[in-house]
Write a structure and sequence with these properties.
The chain is of the alpha+beta class. It contains 13 helices and 25 strands.
Length: 521
């Protein structure tokens, strides 16, 4: 029997009718029995556009076509359970309705099947930083640890690895929401194979080697998302900004920021240097957000200092919402960058406990006036703390490239290096965390310290980095300018995930680590 590339989805348990799985207008190709049917969209056979556009002529017997076939199979997977599987061919996935397939079906099959040192490729999204999506591939079978995968911050999307499973042909298998492999199966023997796939899917052996898989899951269920979105609207309308609030969702070059403008804000001439939550809610008619769609359509823009008619950045307000909520089920969800994530309760407790145990700085920081940006605050802080130096804007080159420069810190005092940022969303705060960890790493290098020390001495400063540098003598402080005036900065869940990683890295290098709330007036 010839081998074929199979792409298999598992339909959600509550969907039992074929008609609720396929898009409108999709035609039946062939019904095999009451439990098996194939659907298709007729192929559009046409001359490829590039033939005339590039070669400037036509050819009757040179054509291209996209095939779309979807096979649905109802299978009794155990004595009492019946599930529907979808097998797609060509572009057949486009015939499926949105949100009808089980998440991580293929991923769990793969991780329940392969050894942890048999991985060839992974696809991941870094949700603790800037949602960077990346794929990594090894030239040989490797352990998950060799991929630079961070179990606290990376959301695994897809895995490819070598299987020793006889039923899978001891072949390469891949899985995300979809399960993909090349195998010798066809319409006559697919039922038992799908049953086998399901039994692999429901195993929990993946927890032995990949226990972190359930820590964070992207939510795709529309019903759950609607419930969470309704809760966001309720919290904002009640002006309860402790659970959810709005924050700038990406890193900005603040020297070029004139103001943040919220469409519909009552005082159209007022200039704000942050997304003011009360001002945001007031920008809606009667100060009431009707539904989440209104959040999506509400636009927040960043005006330029150079040209007030020019927008440096523009976002839907929905993308700016951050925070976490708990449903009646007890499940914890976090929103970031416009997407919802389900957080394993034990993982959430671990992260929150780790954050609560970070030591706070005892330095007496001044408050930050409402109209101040970071630059103005850094200058005032350096002038207020006796013996402090303003280090902000000292760009020290490293690594040999002309563009490789870093600010070692913003303010320094008594072997304490202070890094300061406004509280934004997770993607924004990640810049603060990266600056601190990169600076600490570079300061371990004597050549970099010499460059930094020379820069300081040119400016008359000789008491920040000594010739006898020892990391254990230094304290790193992350100061977060916060509208919430709790002793510990009120930050999004994914920022807590990131700062745990940051603190661990800094302490492992030998430094002491401290955290500080800077009160935004």
């Amino acid at each position: 029997m010839a081998k074929i590339n199979l792409s298999i989805f598992l339909i959600k348990e509550n969907i039992t009718d074929f008609e609720n799985i396929i898009e409108d207008g999709v035609a039946a190709l062939q019904a095999f029995d009451e439990n098996s049917i194939a659907y298709y969209n007729p192929s559009s056979v046409k001359e490829p556009d590039w033939l005339f556009n590039f070669f400037n002529f036509h050819k009757d017997n040179l054509k291209t076509a996209n095939s779309r076939v979807l096979f649905l199979k109802r299978v009794q997977v155990d004595e009492i359970t019946t599930r529907i599987f979808a097998v797609t061919f060509g572009y057949g996935k486009t015939l499926l309705k949105d949100d009808v397939c089980e998440e991580q079906f293929g991923l769990k099959i793969v991780l329940n099947t392969i050894a942890r040192n048999k991985i060839r490729k992974i696809s991941k999204t870094d949700i603790g930083k800037n949602y960077k999506q990346s794929q990594e591939q090894m030239p040989k079978e490797s352990d998950i640890s060799e991929f630079g995968f961070d179990i606290d911050r990376d959301l695994i999307k897809y895995v490819t690895g070598k299987s020793d499973d006889e039923e899978f042909g001891k072949s390469i298998i891949s899985g995300g929401d979809i399960f993909n492999l090349v195998i010798d199966k066809n319409i006559t023997n697919i039922e038992n194979f799908l049953k086998y796939c399901y039994n692999k899917y429901i195993l929990t052996t993946y927890k032995e080697n990949f226990e972190w898989l359930d820590n964070i899951k992207l939510v795709k269920d529309k019903e759950i998302i609607e419930k969470l979105n309704d809760l966001v609207v309720k919290e904002l309308n009640e002006r309860n900004f402790s659970n959810v609030w709005l924050a700038i969702p990406e890193f900005l070059n603040w020297e070029k920021v004139d103001s943040i403008y919220i469409a519909g804000q009552k005082d159209r001439n007022a200039k704000y240097n942050d997304i003011e939550n009360d001002v945001f809610v007031d920008s809606f008619e009667n100060g009431t957000i009707i539904d989440f769609d209104k959040l999506k359509s509400k636009i927040i823009t960043v005006k330029s200092t150079e040209d007030n008619e020019q927008d440096i950045a523009k976002w839907s307000a929905a993308k700016c919402v951050v925070g976490s909520l708990e449903l009646d089920s007890g499940d914890v969800y976090a929103i970031n960058g416009g997407s919802w994530y389900k957080i394993n309760n034990d993982f959430a407790n671990d992260i929150n406990n780790a954050y609560e145990n970070l030591k706070l700085s005892e330095l007496d920081f001044i408050d930050c006036p409402k109209e101040y940006d970071e630059d103005k605050y850094n200058k005032d802080l350096a002038n207020t703390l006796q013996g402090a130096h303003l280090i902000h804007k000292y760009k020290i080159p490293y690594g040999g490239g002309t563009g490789n420069v870093i600010e070692p810190c913003d303010v320094a005092i008594d072997k304490t290096l202070i890094h300061i940022k406004n509280n934004g969303g997770s993607a924004y705060l990640s810049h603060l965390f990266n600056q601190a960890t990169n600076s600490c790493s570079l300061l371990m290098d004597a050549a970099f310290r010499d460059k930094f020390r020379n820069k300081l001495r040119i400016n008359g400063i000789d008491d920040v980095i000594g010739d006898d540098f020892n990391a254990s003598d230094y304290t790193i402080v992350l100061g977060i300018i916060n509208k919430n005036h709790e002793d510990r900065p009120h930050i999004p869940f994914f920022s807590k995930v990131s700062i745990k990683y940051t603190a661990t890295q800094i302490v492992n290098l030998g430094y002491k680590f401290r955290l500080k709330t800077i009160k935004k007036l």
